[in-house]
Amino acid sequence: MASSLKKNIGFYGLISLGSGGVIGSSWIYTNSQFFKAYGAGGEIFGLMIAAVLAVMVSLSFAELSTIFTKSGGEVVYAYAAFGKKGALFAGWALIGSYLSILAFFVTASSLLISYLFPQISTGPYYTFAGVKVHYLELAIGIGITLFIFIVNYFGARLTGNVQIILFAGLIILGAILVVVGFIKGKPANFLPAFYPQQNSVSSVIRFVLPAMTFLTGWESVAIMAEEANIPKKLIGKVVVFSIIIAAIYYILVLLSSAFIHPWKQTANMDMGTIDAFKTAGFPLLGTFAFIISFLGLATSFLTLFAATPRLILSLARGNMLPAGLAKVHPKFGTPTNALGLVLALVLGIGWLGKGALIYFLDIGGFLIALAWSFNALSLFRIRKRYPTLKAGFRIKHLFFPVIGGLFAFSISAMTVIPGTPISLVWPYEYVVLGIWIILGLVGFLTGNRKKKVSDDFLGRSLQDLKSPVDKKSDH
């Protein structure tokens, strides 16, 4: 059974997948809500702090991705650190997070289109979780999902090239907003950046947590490292720069919206940046902002749909999932069976509609924070177990990834502890999390943990990771 992936992704494709995977959709129109809650300064400065923390988190991925350039990213690292138990835990967290986001995109994509064509949200419908799901909306969402699947099916090179085009569109349109916003706008619209009665420091700190949800998706660089046709050292740099590029993009576009129109007025609008530019006399740029929203959804959709099957492929290579899921197309070099499984799962959940899938998104945020913190622990463990391992991108001190990991763990803890500002919604989200935990336990208890992993999983045996001195000490 073919299981070798092709090195089809170049530098620009990889960085487009990384940064494009981070830049999402809702941030560009929900800034009206965040401006109102935290002030323009709270959102923008909070995002800056969150970006620094996200970079700290990414350092562990950056180093390990240059040691183990195999598909699966954290699944592989966790195996090297903790064995199959660790790999299963990492896969459970990441797959759960990505599936929840992908399922949400099924209906979110058509909801965005309905902003331009309201007739889409009319006609026959069904109701789930108190929210209407129109059949036409669902059909459009399924069509977009199938298109994303087809692009991924025909190879990582095509996926990377499509992502480059979409990401270029994001950059060009964003640059136009930024240039016009700063030239035609004025600092007086932004300053003072907080409401008079607001505590500026607490407003900034309070937004750091929701800001972290804007900065996910870069993990895909490590997950798809096996298909990267670039030097190992560059892979680690792409992981980090994916966050930096996306964060700069977010901050400049949001700042331009606060320059072009008084942010306190934008705070009372429905569509944030879109309405700000339209009200300021630039309706075309308001449309550009909407297009950015759709492109952001498309780039995130494409990246996560590419990354999730690679996680499944990796677990199958490790004999933690059925071996058939490790099959790779002989011509296109893509994990076709894993792709098909992801498509079935996404469509199987996606029909629930926005009302139910909001719960899945919150669970996804908890799981991704858990995965981030666990990866920092994996790096610490691997450094201790295999001190002679050489990395193309090596961090001199573990202080920064450890701080990032601790912060990520604090986010996950605050999510599941009732009564915090970011607690899960009782009882619905706790029930969904409970179901995913049960599924994870079933997979863990029924998996064949004694069966050895395939040669394609780690790229080498655990024994080979040790130095000659370490090997002698084992005997």
Descriptive account of the structure:
This protein has a single domain, classed as Amino acid/polyamine transporter I, CATH 1.20.1740.10. It has 18 helices and two strands. α3 packs antiparallel against α4 (84-116), α9 packs across α11 (272-279) and α14 packs antiparallel against α15. Residues 467-475 have low confidence and may be disordered. It has 475 residues and is mostly helical. 69% of the residues lie in helices and 2% in strands. The longest helix has 39 residues, at 27-65. The protein has a two-stranded antiparallel sheet with strand order 1-2.
CATH fold name, please? Amino acid/polyamine transporter I
Which oligomeric state applies? single chain
Q: Radius of gyration from the CA trace?
A: 22 Å
Describe the strand arrangement of the main beta sheet, using strand numbers: 1-2
Order of helices and strands, N to C?
HHHHEEHHHHHHHHHHHHHH
Portion of residues in beta strands equals: under 5%
CATH superfamily: Amino acid/polyamine transporter I
Major beta-sheet overview: 2 strands, antiparallel
Distance between the termini: 36 Å
Cα shape: globular
Low-pLDDT segments, ≥5 res = 467-475
Q: Helix tally?
A: 18
**Arithmetic mean of pLDDT:** 89
- Name the structural class: mainly alpha
In percent, how helical is the residue content?
A: 55-70%
